[in-house]
Specification:
With 372 residues, the protein is of the alpha/beta class. It has 2 domains: 176 residues, Glycogen Phosphorylase B (Rossmann fold); 184 residues, 3-Layer(aba) Sandwich (Rossmann fold). The chain is built from 13 helices and 14 strands.
Length: 372
């Protein structure tokens, strides 16, 4: 039996999309471990921070002691001195595209030092890996543009949608009062100021959430909920909200549990996703699964993942976004259609399917037969 080690240091919702991916990969692979006699899967999560010198120095030794036949790094941060067989998941090449000190809160010299380290680590991960997993064809295309010689070893494996967002939940004010907004059921004739749009995700500059702040004055009847685990840009965004006089209309909910988020989705007017670059776009799929219309930018992989189940706008075009929100507000037929299409679209994505396809990548790297 072959031994596969998964580096799970980034597992958990506090690590945003990568954390969700790693957590669901681990949970689903653990479910298959007993019936699949080809693999022994071991999860490791040493207390070593990612993107650090300690990671580069200590991780090779820790992995060496485990004597794995294959290691899966669910993110590009593969130690430069680890040269045993491994595969890597590359979620995007964002740092190749968003270059410059506006994309960081670090001092300039530290930023450029870390950027150089990123380029070296990413190149090592791509060129030395046995296989690469990409979450979308768009990400695969971006990788191939920079590393055309490794196209054959890239597998596109879509992510999934957690069941909590697919369940039929009954929203009550008691079960989901978050940061001053009670998620009471939407009802016909409800006052406009009881309605809200929602954004979920980080507040890094490429997420482009300031675009939504720009258009809020056009919709005095709406509030905006921002559900986001605190990150380095949290305070900067909060100051921006206050400087615009929007603190009574923009609710910074912070970290929200899946159960609470599902209820918020079910009672919002729409999910708005203004990102300038996305490797997959998981939050929009989760919103769709919960029965919420999605208004998304047309950047990156988003049209590939959302298909015809979303309204799209150019991420620099405020007028387009304003028009799409008005359409959702005024056209109930369109709203119902998007809810139906979104639920159908979300059913196409499964963490179980993602994990099974990942196992077949393991099998291919280890020269094992397909299936059991």
């Amino acid at each position: 039996m072959k031994k596969i080690v998964i580096d799970a240091r980034l597992s958990g919702l506090e690590h945003a999309g990568i954390g969700r991916y790693t957590q669901m990969l681990v949970e689903n692979l653990s479910r298959f471990q007993i019936p699949d006699s080809r693999f022994q899967i071991q999860i490791i999560s040493p207390n070593i921070r990612h993107y650090t010198l300690a990671e580069q120095i200590k991780m090779p030794g820790i992995l060496g002691k485990e004597k794995p036949d294959l290691v899966h790094f669910p993110h590009f941060n593969v130690p430069l001195f680890y040269n045993e067989p491994f595969i890597v998941t590359i979620h995007d090449l964002l740092w190749h595209e968003q270059v410059g000190t506006t994309a960081t809160t670090l001092p300039v010299w530290i930023y450029w030092l870390k950027y150089l380290a990123y380029r070296l680590v990413l190149r090592h991960a791509v060129l030395k890996s046995k296989a690469i997993i990409a979450p979308s064809n768009w990400v695969k295309k971006k990788i191939v543009e920079r590393f055309p010689e490794i196209e054959e070893k890239i597998s596109v494996i879509y992510e999934g949608v957690s069941e909590v967002f697919k369940k039929s939940l009954r929203a009550t004010a008691e079960s989901a009062a978050i940061s001053g907004i009670a998620a009471s059921p939407r009802r016909s004739g409800a006052p406009r100021n009881d309605e809200y749009i929602i954004y979920t995700g980080s507040l890094y500059p490429h997420k482009n959430v300031n675009l939504v702040l720009n258009i809020m004055p056009k919709f005095p009847e709406l509030k905006l909920i921002v559900a986001c685990a605190r990150n380095v840009f949290w305070e900067k965004f909060k100051k921006e909200v206050i400087s615009r006089g929007l603190e009574d209309r923009v609710i910074l909910a912070g970290f929200v549990s899946d159960d609470e988020l599902a209820i918020l989705y079910k009672n919002a007017l729409a999910f708005v996703f203004p990102s300038k670059s996305e490797g997959f776009g998981l939050p929009g799929l989760e919103a769709m699964a919960a029965g919420l219309p999605v208004i998304s930018s047309n950047a990156g992989s988003l049209p590939e993942i959302y298909g015809d189940a979303a309204l799209y706008f150019f991420p620099e075009n405020e007028t387009e976004l304003i028009g799409e929100i008005r359409e959702i507000m005024d056209n109930q037929g369109l709203r119902k259609k998007l809810i139906k299409l979104g639920k159908e679209r979300s059913q196409m994505f499964s963490w179980e399917k993602m994990s099974k396809e990942t196992m077949e990548v393991y099998a291919g790297c280890l020269g094992l037969r397909q299936g059991k």
